[in-house]
Automatic annotation (TrEMBL):
SUPFAM superfamilies: Homeodomain-like. This is Uncharacterized protein. It is found in: Nucleus. It holds the Pfam family Myb_DNA-binding. InterPro entries: Homeodomain-like_sf, Myb_dom, Myb_TF_plants, SANT/Myb. One of its GO terms (cellular component) is nucleus. Keywords: DNA-binding, Nucleus, Repeat, Transcription, Transcription regulation.
Amino acid sequence: MGRSPCCEKAHTNKGAWTKEEDDRLIAYIKANGEGCWRSLPKAAGLLRCGKSCRLRWINYLRPDLKRGNFSQEEDDLIIKLHSLLGNKWSLIAGRLPGRTDNEIKNYWNTHIRRKLLQRGIDPSTHRPMRTRAEEKCPDLNLELRMSPPRHLDARSPPQEKCLDCRLGSHGDGGGKDCR
DNA sequence: AAAGGGCTCAACCGCAAGGAC
DNA sequence: GGTCCTTGCGGTTGAGCCCTT
């Protein structure tokens, strides 16, 4: 049988949102707040599925969105966060007030990724890319451990700092550990 | 001015997580 | 504990814009 569709597709609009749809969604959320996305379209008189409404609100209509170009600081922070978190766009977005995961994901794929490649840095590993010679003769001395060697080496204590510590972004100014 | 190729970004899709029953 | 339902996330797509020829 498979999954039931998230909405009655035959009766929903798809594609770009109209001004009227935006207005309806904004008016409804202002009056009732963000709530049950599944029932929202019907209640708001929209021929959209709940997912689509949620996405439109979060990525485009929310009043606290910043929009516009990314600053150099935001740029650097995204790179830093991506090196720590990987493609966890929602977590990265959580650290950038007024930015959405979709926006950051797009910005990464269109701008930052290319910038890193131009600098010879692999965007997925954040390490210098291998040369052609290295590509041809891969290092066979592979590291086969599946997880980082935690607590095995008493000389190098495990990394248990919180993300703010690792980023050096604690608001208290001194780069203090919060452990 | 027109064509076409590249780029951007809003929106969609499928899946997984988590809560309710 | 199992199933269903809803939400949230990440990857991908495609329409429209921009730039180059």
